[in-house]
Amino acid sequence: MVLKGDSAWSDPRLELSFSAHLMRFFLGSRGLDPLLFGDRPEPVLVDLAIYDLLRAQGPSAMLDQARTRLRSGLAQLAGSQHHQGGWGWSRLASQPAIPPTVAGLMALARAKPLAGEIGWSFPAQKLDAARNWLQQQLPRLAADDFGQRGEILYALSHLEGQQVPAVQLHRMHRMRGQLSLGAACLLGLTWQQRKRPEQARELAQQVAKNLNFNSTLPLRERWQPGSWVSDLDRVRALRLLALTGVAPDKLKEGWAWLMGRGNSLGWRFPRQAAEALDTLAKLEQGQTAKARLKIQVKVNGKAAGQVELGADRALAKLKVDPALLTSGDNRVELAASGSGPCLVQAVLSGHRKDAPAGDSRDPIKL
Prior knowledge:
By secondary structure, the chain is α+β, with helices and mostly antiparallel strands. It is about 45% helix and about 15% strand. The strands form 2 sheets. The protein has a 4-stranded antiparallel sheet with strand order 1-6-3-4, with no helix packed on it. The radius of gyration is 23 Å and the shape is globular.
């Protein structure tokens, strides 16, 4: 990697942070298109998942950034809710829709216990309005619309108390043999969320029989939420298997698929990114412990030190000798030996007496 310095800096500093945590998947991805998702609740689920990962293990500077981003996203989420209680496909949509409202409800439910920690005043009335709107939609769904029904039930299971309608839940369970892979995953995750492991395992066993990771469909069809072979369904299926302990061989196959999918394509759709993050958090519990890495660092062609990551040390920092830094480009080379994932963050900083001179030719940055 190349980091650009400033000739006016009097004391440049370079600090590297290394972590065996799998946050690298999404913190280093191509990002989400704000024109498509800026007014929608789904990106807040991504912010919540990243914040949870950073809370568990991550550089404090990154946690501060994630906290600020999460607080801003939640404030925007509360402000974009429709007066009916749901969220639409955009701020300009005239009516709420089920998928974005499901995402909004889950985001508020997950953020509620974090409100004091991130310095956010939790809007309880917003959560109640979203819950009421979703509950009103259940009797309006077609009898065989198990996909949207499963989405609503799973969202309601994140609320305190018995918010999931028992009649709807048990009817879906009786008809589990007719459910698509995606609907079966949602039903199983709902049972797991409600601390009913026996029923969750029944669904997990059903899902494992039909789950495969070698889709031959075109990407456009493969990424459509709700379809039989969507990546979103596969990610949910992996989390269900991990939570229930069913089909460990499928889990190993799915782990390899998830690693490859994230590396090759990133996760441009926020709901997929959030679900994949939650799944990784569960799957990697046994993987981080297997990390055994020795990383040697060179700065501008000269040795700058080395760090080691292992079961007892999943986070390491290295402060580079300022004498190795230049006022221009600084090339950082990393050579790793061993096995396991590693997140790397490099921060180059310095101080200057005067503000940099403006240039009228510079483009305006929004």
